[in-house]
C-alpha cells in the first residue's frame, strides 16, 4: 500500500514538473522598493525553435512618479536593435495603472525563436535617477510534447516494474517467515 502511494507521488511529481513550464509566471522576491522589476526573475524559460515568443518585463512604479525612469532590454549587453537588425526581436512598451499602482511593461517579442537565442543573456534594465536594476532571463530549447509523453510512459512502466518487484519480495519474505515459524 505504502509502495503504491510512493509510486503514485513519484509519477505525480514527474508529470507536474513536466507541466511546470506552462504554468503562469510568479513574481520573484517582492520588496517594497519602487521602481521594482516584478518579472523576469533571473530564470530560464523554454521555447521551440521557429515559434513566436513574448517575454514581458514588468516594473512596478510609483503612482505619481517624481523621477523619470527608463526600461529596456539588452541581449548579451547590446541593445535589441543591434542584436536583431531585421526586427525579428522587438520591444513593445506599455503603461498600465490602476487605483493602487502603476506599471511599465516592456515586451520582448520574437517573431521566430532562433538557435542563437539560446546562448544569449536577455536582460531587462530599469534606469532611474538613483538606481539601476537588472534581471536576466535565458531561453532554452523546449522538450517537445512527444518527448515529454515518452518520459511519462517510461516513468509509469518503471514504476509498475518496481511495484511488482517490491510486492514479489514482500510476498516471498512473508512465505519465508511463515515457513520459519512453522518449522
Ligand atoms: C552571447 O554570449 C555568450 C557567452 O558570453 C556567447 O556564447 C554567445 O555566442 C553570445 N551570443 C551572441 C548572439 O552574441
Ligand atoms: C538578478 O541578476 C542581477 C545581475 O544580472 C543581479 O544584480 C540581481 O541582484 C539578481 N536578482 C535576483 C533577485 O536574483
Automatic annotation (TrEMBL):
This is Ig-like domain-containing protein. The chain crosses the membrane at residues 150-171. Its main location: membrane. Keywords: Disulfide bond, Glycoprotein, Immunoglobulin domain, Membrane, Receptor, Signal, Transmembrane, Transmembrane helix. It is found in: Membrane. It comes from Scyliorhinus torazame (Cloudy catshark). The lineage of its organism: Eukaryota, Metazoa, Chordata, Craniata, Vertebrata. It is a single-pass type I membrane protein. Residues 1-20 form the signal peptide. GO terms for cellular component: membrane. PANTHER family: INTERLEUKIN-1 RECEPTOR FAMILY MEMBER (PTHR11890), INTERLEUKIN-1 RECEPTOR TYPE 2 (PTHR11890:SF3).
